[in-house]
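Dissemination and training. As part of the outreach component of the grant, students in the summer workshop were shown how a complex can be specified as a set of sequence lines and then modelled as a single object. The example used during the hands-on session is reproduced here so that future cohorts can follow it. Participants entered these lines:
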Amino acid sequence: MLLRLRDIHKSFAGAEGPVPVLRGVDLDLAAGESLALTGESGSGKSTLLHLVGGLDRPDRGRIEVAGTEVTALDDSGRAALRRGTVGVVFQQFNLIPSLTVGDNIAFQARIAGRHEPVRATALAERLGLAPHLAKYPEQLSGGQQQRCAIARTLAARPALVLADEPTGNLDEATAEEVLGAMLELVAETGAALLMVTHSQHHAARMGRRLHLHAGRIA
Amino acid sequence: MTGAVFHALLSHWRRAPLQLFTLIAGLALATGLWSGVQAINAEARASYDAAAATLGEGRFARIEAATGGEVTQAQYVALRRAGWLVSPVVQGRLGGVRLVGIDPLTAPGGIGPAAEEADISAFLGGAGQIFGRAEVLAALPETGAEPVLAPDVAPGTALTDISLALRLLKRDSIDALLVAPEQPIGRPELAEIAPDLVLRPPQPGSEVGRLTDSFHLNLTAFGLLCFAVGIFIVHGAVGLAFEQRRPVIRTLRALGVPLRRLVALMLLELLAFALVAGVIGVGLGWLLAARLLPDVAATLRGLYGADVAGGLALRPAWWLSGLGIAVLGTGLAAGAALWRIATMPLLAAGGRRAWAMAEARMARGQGAAALALLLLAAGLAVWGEGLVAGFALLGAGLIGAALALPLLLGAALGLAARLAHGPLMQWFWADTRQQLPGLSLALMALMLAMAANIGVSTMVGSFRATFAEFLDQRLAPELYVETADDAQARAVEALLAPRIRAVLPLASVEIEVEGIPTELNLARPDPTYPENWRLLRATERPWERLAAGEGVLVSEQLARRAGLSLGDPVRLGPETALPVLGIHGDYGNPLGQVIVTEALFAQLQPEIVPRRFGLRLDPAEVPEIRAALTGMGLPEGAITDQAAVKRFSMQVFERTFAVTAALNVLTLAVAGFAMLMSLLTLAALRLPQLAPVWALGLTRRRLAALEMGRAVLLAALTAVVALPVGLALAWVLLAVVNVAAFGWRLPMTAFPWDYARLGLFALLAAGLAALWPAIRLARTPPAALLGVFAHER
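and obtained this result:
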């Protein structure tokens, strides 16, 4: 199993004491599988994704990614996990504004030590970014920026792709187009995909779906 | 990974060249101003050390005439015969050069030049040799001796064999005898061989160096202030740059860059900037020092008689310390920002709003720090003593006031917002208040620079007024004449006494009062003194009692150093102790001064015949008396009129403060630059705040005018705060630092027109600084303003 979550608990500090967000989540995801995580706002979807990516730590429970216990890793270990095993696609794109589109696409593969210029170029072409490689992110439309973020993630060949509402900032037509490209490319690389989404329609395009409600898998 | 991350970090500056320029320029200016001052200090100290090495000043005990006169050859021979290991020294002016004669055969080790060509037989034999720096050798008149280049000889000094020096100076007696550290046991006491001579023990450290310490301390304090203003600029630029990079830092971490590596790379980036800016700064410092050094050299010569080389040497310790201070300054300016980056949680919401909230939290701490520093300054003002306490008071007061400035401005703007009518003005005041955190560092720099300007110009102005009045009092005689010998002195007095209103003999001898080096001066009873001199404190009828030999007058610095008050006895000899009748100002004199009546002076120093005279006469008679004196064989150079002496004294004064004035202007210019850079940097961030107001119906031109008005208003409020701070600074300089450094206190004079002019200048500078961003805003295409809404998420 590529991803295994057991009894994950997480709460955040509130004005009147800790506010529980996740209350004992169990989840498994095999290599090459795609899973949509749906739920209302505040149900803990993004928090769960952050915990899997090592961006945050659970209060309790165990997370394993590709046989590594994430919950036991220190900050450097979690950074190494994000570099080498996990790729994250954010709703806000999170491109580096001072780097060109070409440099942005190559960036994560470079820091992971897996940069293949041919692959980066091929991804840019597949995602329609080839004419824009010398531009800066602010010169692209929202859809193009998200395609750039997807190319950046996939160029590093991660075993697990985490996507946090990747089409949340895009109009319906663009969202369809971007999601289609992402699913196609992820399938080609054989990576597993865990995607958080509000859209039932998008969730229906994934292999499996789970619904989070009040911090638990419903 | 490292290369890719470093590239990503550096790419920020390619997209923000103005920020990079601000950072490098701020740091280079700070380093330049600081290292320029340090170069001047280092050059001056090297000159003092060279003087000490050349003449053994301070290193060896000296035997001198007790009366301050000369040592005869006979006394020297008698001492050598009695077993004393002493070596003669003579010095005098030859052309514009100080010529020093030594005896290389008897001089203690380490005295004299270390030129490679030094050859003892050539030095002593034939036409002899004269050692000196190139400019000194060039300035010497024709002597017949061989000039030898020796860069280690003190500036302005030429060194030669004593016999040649005596011949060239037309002298037959020597000034002093240097005493070798090792002396034979059992030699007779000095008093037995030469009772008229006294042994002065060696004094560690160069005497000139000690005298000029407070001058250099003042320069250093100014350099530090300039540096602080520069660091304010860097702090603002780095803080803003790091703030803008927060989202990128989060992204980099989210993509798997370890925090430790990221912080290390950012440190490396800052170090690289610091070194680049440091090299530029050291170059600027070099240029600044080279420009100011001639003035400083003239000042030190005028004030302390210290010769300082006019040229600048590139000393490794100096430029290394310049680079060091650039790195240290970067660390100081960037430390807090880097710490915030290093400790920020990976997932916390970023953005400028978070920054503004963090700034608000910091404001409370800043207020507490300001209050603590101002209380410390108040405590030091009341209880502190000495120069270090004076400078601590300056530092605490200035930093405390600077920290309090944003809080005071915030309160003033809050009050204005409450009183505002109409939505536009309410928005204007609220928006101005929101801008305060981003501009506060530049405003603090402006406030410090203005306060320094007010403080220093008030100090210099007060000093000038006091000094001019002091010269009028002291230089009452219409003519001054200096005779060559005792016989000529008596002849001049006999000639003039029946022809003019008064002949006032002038003589001075160095003595010690309570262990303090002091000049003993004489005053002939004459209405000139009571009519012109203003005593700072006096008993009843001081001049009458002085004339009657019932007491003495002492200078303010002697009174302070020796703790003397009116009526306290002053010991002038084994059996002579007289009360203090009055205390007079004696500005610019590093020595203390005691004035006694002529009769008492003759009694205390019977061997001294006054050779200088102040002549009181009708100004119309000046040409006639001058002719009579030259007719007696006195050279023109021996007769000086009052106006020439005053002119020379004021020239020395003006040159003394030329350096201060130059640094003052530079500090203000740096503060103006800080304002411009802050406004330009902030202008790029202003669109999201201005676009909604534009969309609601305000024209770009009107918005630009409001932006300019905001800058001018903030500068005006800053000037209002700077005025009392500057006046307080002036008070500290005049009443605390001056007293501790020089021993005299100056009355403070206010110069309202100067302050008004400075205020206008600050407003103009702020207006000009805001003009460029305002023009850019007025010309911002509507598409850019609409882009704000398109990019809002």
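Chain A has one domain: 33-58+74-217. Students were then asked to discuss how this feature might be tested experimentally.
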